[in-house]
Every structure is written in structure tokens, then in C-alpha cells.
Amino acid sequence: MEYLRLLYTEYLFSPDPAVYRAHVQLFHFFPVVCILQSAITTPMGKTSVKSFLNLPGKLSWILMELISPLSFFLTFYLNTPTTPLKTLTSLPISHKILSILYLIHYLNRALISPLRAPAYAPAHIIVLLVATYFNYLNGYSLSSFLLLQQGQIPQTGVWRWKVRMILGVGLWIVGFWGNIWHEDVLYEIRRRAKREHLETARTKKEDGLGEGVERVLVPEQRRLVVKAENTGHVYEIPEGGLWEYCWHPHYFMEWIEWTGFLIAAGGWECAPAINFLVNEIASMTPRAFQGVEFYKRKFGRRLPERKAVVPFLL
Rounded to whole angstroms, how far apart are CA atoms 146 and 155? Predict the structure, then answer.
């Protein structure tokens, strides 16, 4: 028990500068791991594969995403003489804003978003383990940064701080809202697919139709869908917003969100924010290109021409 106590107080959740730097440096290896994703198919989401090591998608998502705010809070809880809430309220205003943005993001990402989603594809246990460690590093390093960097803003730099915070928070809000809006387009496709599958099952029973795969274009509704009647899966081309220009606008908007967070955090002064943004781009870009290949397999030549993740560029 003493060993475990020392493990989480002296290493896992310690804001000691040397320990903090070691954890931040560990973050530097994740882009290398993420680049390897381009050589394999990530076993989650639309590219999920059948395996006895698969876990329920929604549960896996909630568990691995909750690690970030839990790690964030535990680092505060174990290293403050008062309660974490009192410590947070005693931080400089910039740190309070960053904490609020961070926790709002994970409230949505870990709880609200998966509870709103109709379904998540199964996730491989390897995805859960890697994401859990990544999210631990993310929550710990940002919390330690806030505890270690508690200096007040010099009076000569107040105007720069105000511009930085207004720009960063504004960009964060745009990215946060854009991510939710574009994800909701996908959720509505799944909800509609479920409704239509139930209707198809009813009419098929009434008409005596057999099982099979049907490709259907519904021009009056501008909907291009692929229906697999034997499984009930329905795949549809997302429409609206930045979906008209790229296949993963929810990824792109999340990058905008964390770019805003990085600006608000002071840019190069906040290593955890830099690490997180770089790692997000490194991990999500291969998945975006894998997603494009997924759409090509489903829709073939009917697939509209769009970029993978960044409108007009990538």
C-alpha cells in the first residue's frame, strides 16, 4: 500500500517540475505512434473490425474520455493544502478560464456526446488502453502546468493578455460549437437509419421481401444512402455546413477548438496545450484518410469530391 501511495503521490499525480517535464516529454512519442496508424486500420468507429477483444463502443468511449478530467482533478486534489475547488478559485483569472474550457470540453466529450449518440461501433481493447494513457497524460500535464505557473500577469502585458484571451476563447467557442453541430449531423443519420430500418423490417415482412443489399439514391431528398438490409446498417452521405467541403469537419472543428485553447494558454508557453493539439492532428489525420476510403468502398463512383479533413486543403 505504501508503494501505491508513493506511486500516485510522487509520480503519477505529482506536479514536481522534474516529474512534470518527464511526463511532457512522454507526450512527444505519441505522434510517432499515431503515424503508424496510417499503416493499419484503427479498430474503432466506422473502421471497427470484428474481434473477441472488442468492447462496447459507447462504454469504452466514456471510460477512456473520463480519464482526462479525473487525472486533472486528482492532480489538484493530491497536491493542494486546501480543497481542489478552493485551489482553483485562488488561481489567476487566466488559469480559471483555461480550467473551465477544459472541463466543459470533457463534460461534453465524455458524457453528453456519447449519451446523445444513438450508437457507437465496438472499440478494440488496444484503443481503450492507448487512449486511457494518452488522456491521463493530457489531464495530468495541464493540471500540473496550472499549479506550477501561478504567477500574475505583469501590468505591462495586460493588453496582450486580453487580446490573447479574447481571440483564444472566441476561437475555442467556434470550434466547440462547430464540433457539436457537425457531429449531430452524423447522429441524426444514425437516428434516421434506425427509424428507417424498423420501417423496412415492417414493410419487408408485409411484402415478403428477402434479405440483401440495396443501393438507393433518393434525389428528391438529396440523400445518397447504402442500405444493408440483412444487418440493418444504413450509410448516408452527410450534408450541410462544412460537410459539403470535407469528410471529417468535426475533426477539423475540434482542431480549431484546441488551437483557440492554445492561444488562450499563451501559445508556446503552455507545453501541454501544444502537445495535445499536435497529437490530436497526428492521430486524427490518418483516421480521416481511412474514413475517406471507407466512404469510397460504400458509395463507389457516386461519392462526391471532398477533402479528407481540412476544407479546400487536406
Answer: 20
Average pLDDT for residues 45-68, to the nearest whole number? 82
Kindly state whether residue 314 falls inside one of the protein's structural domains: no
And the C-alpha cell for 55? 468492447
At 236-254, the pLDDT tens digits run: 889 999 999 999 999 999 9
Between strands 213-218 and 123-124, the pairing is: unpaired
CA distances from 276 to 171, 265, 283 (A): 16, 12, 10
Q: Are 278 and 144 in contact (CB under 8 A)?
A: no
What are the distances in angstroms from CA 76 to CA 82, 99, 133, 219? 10, 11, 18, 55
Distance between CA atoms of 291 and 186, rounded to whole angstroms? Answer: 13
175 inside domain:
yes
Neighbours of 234 (CB within 10 A): 20
The burial of 193, by beta-carbon neighbours within 10 Å (0-12 exposed, 13-18 middle, 19 or more buried), is given as buried
Percent of the chain with pLDDT over 90: 33
pTM to 2 decimals? 0.84
Q: Provide the pLDDT confidence category of residue 155 given band limits of 50, 70 and 90.
A: very low
Q: What residue has cell string 505557473?
A: 149
Helix axes 93-107, 249-264, angle to 10 degrees: 160
Domain count, the chain: 1
Residue 13: which domain range? 2-302
Q: What single-letter DSSP state applies at residue 117?
A: S
The vertex-12 CA angle with 11 and 14, nearest 5°, equals 60
- Which residues lie closer than 8 Å to 194 by C-beta, 6 or more apart? 118
104 CA to centre of own chain = 13
d(CA 260, CA 20) in angstroms, rounded, equals 23
